[in-house]
Design brief:
elongated; 4-stranded mixed β-sheet; alpha+beta
C-alpha cells in the first residue's frame, strides 16, 4: 500500500473542531480503510464473491421489486408519531412566550398576561440587582442627565428623595402592590441620611445585590434595559467617587445580564428565543436562498464549457467572501467601540472582534486547502463532465433537491415549533438569597425536569434521523435515475420520465432501506452529541484526562460515521439497480468495490473536489448575505445573531449538499454501474458504457493505481 501521510487540506466543514492538532481528513480515512482491507485480505481470508454475470433478460435496473426493510419503515413512522404527540403535548402545556420575554423578580412575564398580573403594557425589564431580579417597565428610560441617583427603582416601584428630578412618566413601573411580601424602601433601608454614598452600601441597594437600584439611562436589547456606559460613569462619580466599592464592576455585571441571566433563562432559552424571533428569516435565508443559489449553480455546472469557469470562480468568491466578512466584522467592532453613546456591551464588541479573527484564520485555512487541492479539483472536473452527460439527459433530477429542501424545511418548521414549546415547559422556582443578615432577596428562575431534558434528547434524535432519511431517499432516487440512463442502449431516448418513475419506485418500495441506512448514521450522530455534552461537563470540571479521552472517542466515532456513510451510499446504488434490501446491498456493494478497489478508490477520492468547492461557495454566500439582513432587520430584537446564522449556515450546507450530491451520487453511480457492466460483459461490444466513459475510467484508474491511490 502506497500513500502519503494524511494532509490537513481536506477537512470538511461538517466535521467537529476537536483535536485539530491530530485531525485526520475523514474522507481519506474511508478510502484508506477500504484499500487496507483489500491489500491485507488474501483470497483465503476473504470471500469477495464471484464476479457478476448478466441475467439473460437483463435490461437495466430490475422491474421485479418488493418492499425492503419494512421494519425500519415502521420504526420511522413510530418516531414521527411520537414526536408529533410530544409536540402537541408541549403546545398544550407550554407557552413559547416564556423563552421570548423577560421574567421579573416575582415570576411575571413582561409584555404578556402570563403570571399573577397582566404585564401586557410593560414589555421591558429593568434590572434591580445582579441576581437577574428586575421589574417590568413600560419603556426603557432615556435620561438626558444620564442618571438620577436620588431616584431608586425598587421591587415595589419608584422611591425618591429630595433632589430627584425625574417623574413616574420617565420610568413607568408596573403595579406590584398586590404582593404584600415585597420589600419596600425606607430612608433607613435605602437612603440613610439622604447621602448618595451611604445609599450605595445600604441594605436596599447593597452594591447591586439588594432590592433597589438607581435610575439610569438605558438602551433596549431583547426587551431588556441595559445601562449605557455614560450612565455608569456618571453614577460612579456621585455614589462612589473614590471607587471604594467597585461600582463599575457591579454595574457591568448588571448590564450584561441580557447575555446570560445567572439564575433565570439559560443559553438554551435565549437560543430558542432568537430562533423564534428570526424564524421567518431562517426559513427564507436558510432554505429559500440556498435553493435559488444551489439550483442556478447546478444548472451552470452541468454545462461542460462553463464548468471550469464556475469552479475556479467559486474558489475565488468563497475566499473573498470569508475575508470580506472578516474585514467587515473588524470594522464593525471598532465602530461599536467608538460609538457615542455606546449601543453595545463590551461582550458584543469582543464577539465581533473574535469573529473577525476567526474569519481571517478560516480564510487563510481555505487558501491553504485550495492550494493543496488544485490538482485534485482539476482532475475532479473530468468526473463531473462524465456525470453531466447523464444529468443533461435527466434535467428533472436537478429539481429534485428543491423537493428535498422543501421537505426538510417543512420538517424543520414543525420541529422548531415543537422544541420552542418544549423549552417553555420548565417550572418556576423561587430562591431566597441572604445578601445581608436578616434581609432576603427573592429571585424567580426557570428549571427543567429530567423528563423535559430527556424529551430534548429525543427531539435531537428525531432531527438527526429525519435529516439523514431525507438525504438517503434522495440518494436512492438519484442512483435509480442515473442507472436507468446508464443501462440504456440508446441513451438519447432517456429523459425526465425516468426520474419520475424512480421517485415513485424508491418511495413505494425502498423507504425502509433509506430508513435503515439513515438510522445507522443518526445513531452515530447521537453518540457524538452525547460525547459533546460530556466534553462540556469535562470542561466545567477542568479534567484534562476526561477531556483527552472524550476527544479521542469523538474522533473514533466520527471515523466510523464517515465509513458507514460511504458504505450506505454504495448500498443505495445496489438497491436502486437490483432492488435488494439494505444488508444484502451493502454486502454486494462491498464485494464489488473490493474486486475493483484501485479504480473506485482513486476516482472516488478525486471526485469530491468540485463537490466541496460548490458546497463551500453556496454556504458562504448564503450565510454572508444572511448576516447583513439580520443585522439590518433584527439588530435590536435578537439576543445574538450567532444562533440564527448557525442554523442558516447549517441549512445552507445541508441544501447545498443536496444539489452537489446530485453530481457526487452521479459519479458514484456511473462508476459502480461501469464496474458491474464490465464484470457482466467483459470488454466486449455488449457493454453499456460509451467509448469515452470507458477510456476515461480506465485511464484515470490505472494512472492513479501507479501513483498510489493516496498520492
Amino acid at each position: 500500500l502506497s500513500f502519503h501521510l494524511p494532509d490537513p487540506t481536506i477537512i470538511l466543514p461538517q466535521d467537529p473542531p476537536v483535536c485539530r492538532q491530530s485531525y485526520i481528513p475523514f474522507q481519506r480515512i474511508r478510502l484508506i480503510f477500504i484499500y487496507c482491507l483489500k491489500n491485507t485480505m488474501s483470497s483465503k481470508d476473504a470471500d469477495l464473491g464471484e464476479k457478476l454475470s448478466a441475467p439473460p433478460d437483463f435490461n437495466g435496473p430490475t422491474s421485479k421489486r418488493h418492499m425492503t426493510d419494512i421494519l425500519c419503515t415502521v420504526l420511522l413512522w413510530c418516531m414521527w408519531i411520537a414526536m408529533t404527540g410530544l409536540g402537541l403535548y408541549a403546545m398544550q402545556q407550554g407557552d413559547y412566550r416564556l423563552i421570548l420575554y423577560p421574567l421579573d423578580y416575582d415570576g411575571n412575564l413582561c409584555g404578556t398576561n402570563k403570571g399573577q398580573v397582566d404585564m401586557t403594557d410593560y414589555p421591558y425589564l429593568y434590572y434591580v440587582n445582579d441576581f437577574s431580579g428586575g421589574v417590568c417597565v413600560r419603556e426603557c428610560p432615556k435620561l438626558e442627565n444620564l442618571t438620577d441617583v436620588k431616584t431608586l427603582v425598587t421591587y415595589s416601584g419608584l422611591y425618591q428623595v429630595d433632589g430627584s428630578y425625574i417623574t413616574s412618566d420617565d420610568i413607568a413601573i408596573a403595579d406590584y402592590s398586590y404582593n404584600n411580601d415585597t420589600l419596600a424602601c425606607t430612608e433607613t433601608l435605602c437612603y440613610p441620611n439622604g447621602d448618595p454614598e451611604e445609599s450605595f452600601t445600604s441594605y436596599g441597594v447593597n452594591m447591586g445585590k439588594g432590592f433597589s437600584y438607581y435610575a439610569m439611562d438605558t438602551y433596549e436589547l431583547m426587551w431588556r434595559c441595559v445601562f449605557t456606559d455614560e450612565a455608569r460613569d456618571a453614577a460612579d462619580a456621585i455614589v462612589n467617587p473614590n471607587d471604594q466599592n467597585n461600582l463599575t464592576s457591579v454595574i457591568d455585571t448588571m448590564a450584561t445580564q441580557n447575555e446570560q441571566i445567572k439564575q433565570g433563562y439559560s443559553i438554551w432559552n435565549n437560543l430558542y428565543g432568537d430562533l423564534w424571533v428570526a424564524r421567518y428569516y431562517i426559513l427564507g435565508l436558510g432554505f429559500g436562498a440556498p435553493l435559488v443559489v444551489g439550483f442556478v449553480y447546478s444548472l451552470f455546472l452541468r454545462i461542460p464549457l462553463v464548468l471550469p469557469f464556475m469552479v475556479w470562480f467559486s474558489v475565488a468568491a468563497t475566499i473573498a467572501i470569508v475575508f470580506g466578512g472578516a474585514y467587515y466584522a473588524g470594522e464593525l467592532a471598532a465602530e461599536w467601540e467608538n460609538a457615542d453613546p455606546p449601543m453595545y456591551t463590551d461582550d458584543n464588541i469582543k464577539v465581533a472582534q473574535y469573529g473577525s479573527y476567526a474569519l481571517y484564520a478560516f480564510g487563510g485555512l481555505l487558501v491553504i486547502v485550495f492550494l493543496f487541492m488544485r490538482k485534485r479539483i482539476q482532475l475532479a472536473m473530468g468526473c463531473v463532465k462524465e456525470a453531466s452527460k447523464a444529468i443533461l439527459r435527466l434535467p428533472l433530477i436537478i429539481v429534485f433537491p428543491v423537493i428535498q429542501a422543501l421537505g426538510f424545511a417543512a420538517f424543520m418548521t414543525i420541529w422548531t415549533v415543537y422544541c420552542a414549546y418544549l423549552a417553555s415547559m420548565g417550572e418556576f422556582k423561587t430562591q431566597q438569597i441572604d445578601t445581608v443578615p436578616g434581609l432576603f432577596i427573592s429571585v424567580r428562575y426557570f428549571e427543567f425536569s429530567d423528563f423535559i431534558k430527556q424529551c430534548g434528547w429525543f427531539m435531537l434524535f428525531c432531527f438527526f434521523w429525519s435529516g439523514q432519511f431525507i438525504i438517503a431517499i434522495g440518494e436512492i432516487i438519484f442512483a435509480m435515475s442515473i442507472s436507468k440512463w446508464y443501462f440504456a442502449r440508446d441513451k438519447k431516448k432517456v429523459g425526465s420520465g425516468a426520474v419520475i418513475s424512480s421517485i415513485w419506485t424508491s418511495i413505494w418500495y425502498h423507504t425502509g432501506t433509506a430508513a435503515f441506512g439513515s438510522l445507522i448514521i443518526a445513531i452515530f450522530q447521537m453518540i457524538r452529541a452525547v460525547i459533546a455534552y460530556l466534553q462540556k461537563k469535562a470542561d466545567e470540571m477542568d479534567s484534562s484526562l476526561a477531556k483527552a479521552i472524550l476527544c479521542c472517542l469523538q474522533c473514533v466515532v466520527l471515523c466510523f460515521e464517515k465509513i458507514f456513510k460511504f458504505i450506505n451510499k454504495n448500498a443505495y446504488i445496489q438497491t436502486a439497480i437490483f432492488g435488494s434490501s439494505f444488508c444484502k446491498s451493502a454486502k454486494e456493494a462491498y464485494c464489488l468495490i473490493m474486486r475493483n478497489a484501485a479504480r473506485i478508490i482513486a476516482i472516488t477520492y478525486v471526485s469530491g473536489g468540485v463537490v466541496f468547492v460548490g458546497k463551500m461557495f453556496i454556504t458562504t454566500l448564503t450565510t454572508g448575505a444572511a448576516y447583513f439582513v439580520l443585522d439590518n432587520e433584527l439588530r435590536d430584537e435578537l439576543y445574538s445573531n450567532i444562533g440564527p446564522l448557525f442554523f442558516i449556515a447549517l441549512s445552507a450546507w445541508f441544501i447545498s449538499g443536496m444539489f452537489m450530491g446530485v453530481f457526487d451520487m452521479g459519479i458514484a453511480t456511473i462508476l459502480q454501474c461501469f464496474v458491474a457492466d464490465e464484470e457482466m460483459y467483459g470488454d466486449s461490444q455488449s457493454m453499456y458504457a460509451e467509448g469515452s466513459l470507458k477510456n476515461w475510467v480506465n485511464d484515470h484508474g490505472k494512472s492513479s493505481e501507479k501513483r498510489g491511490c493516496m498520492d
